Request: fold
Amino acid sequence: MLKIFNRMPVLKALLIQLFAFVCIAPLMSSLPTLTLLEWALFQGIVAAFISYCFRIASWWLPIQLCFFPAVVLTLALELSPLWFCLGFFLLLLIYGKTFQTQVPLYLSSTEVTRVLASLLPQQRNFTFMDLGCGCGGLLSKLNKTHTHGAFYGIEAAPIPYLIGKIRTLFRRPNCNVQWGDLWKQNLGQFDVVYAYLSPVPMPSLWEKASREMQPGSLFISNTFAVPGITPEKIIALNDFSKSKLYIWRM
Reply:
C-alpha cells in the first residue's frame, strides 16, 4: 500500500482531504454562522497543514489549500457536469497518466536541440531514443541535421503522440514515434538515450539504463540529475529555464 501512495501521491492527497473533512465535520454544527465557503477554506487550511506534516512535495500545499474552496465556488456557478467531463478527458488526452507517472509534459527548447546536435556522432551511424518525446519536435529537428542517424521516440499521452507521429510521418524511415510505456522499452539497442522527465523517476530510470544500455553509449537527462550518480559532463543551457544537460557514458 505504501508503494502505491509513493507512486500515486494524488491518492495520498485525496485521503488527506477526506481526513481533514472528517476532522472539521463535528465543528460545523457548533458554528452555524460560518458560510459553506468559509468552512471549505478552513478545511483547505487543515488539509494543507496535514500535508505539510506528512512532508508531501511543497507544490501540493496550494492545491490542498484551494481544492475544496474551488469545488464550492464551481458548484455555485451551476455549470453542467458535461463541461467537467470534457475538461477531464481533454487533460487526460494531453497529459496521459501524469497523476501516476508524476511526469508532466515538457518540451525541449531550441537550445537543447543545438547542444544535442553537437554531441551526436558526426560521421558514423547511430541510434537515438527520446523517452517521453512529447510532440516529436526534438526528433524532427535532429533528423534534419543528422541524416546518418536513426531517431526514435516513445510517448504515452495520446494527443502529443498523434502530433509527433504526424510530424515524423513524412520524414525519413528512420525517424519514428511510437505510443507506449517507456518502462517497457528496451534501451540496449540505442547509442544515445535522452530523457526530459521529472525528479521522481530518475533513480529507477538510471537502474534501467545501467541494466540495459551498452558500454560506451550515452545517457542524457535534461534538467533532472540522477541522485548520487556523478555525471561525466554537465552542460549549462542558455535557454529560458537556464537548465542543464547531465551526461553519463555507460
Notes: The CA atoms of residues 189 and 213 lie 7 Å apart. The beta strands are 126-131, 149-155, 175-179, 192-195, 218-222, 233-236, 244-249. Residues 2-78 form one domain.
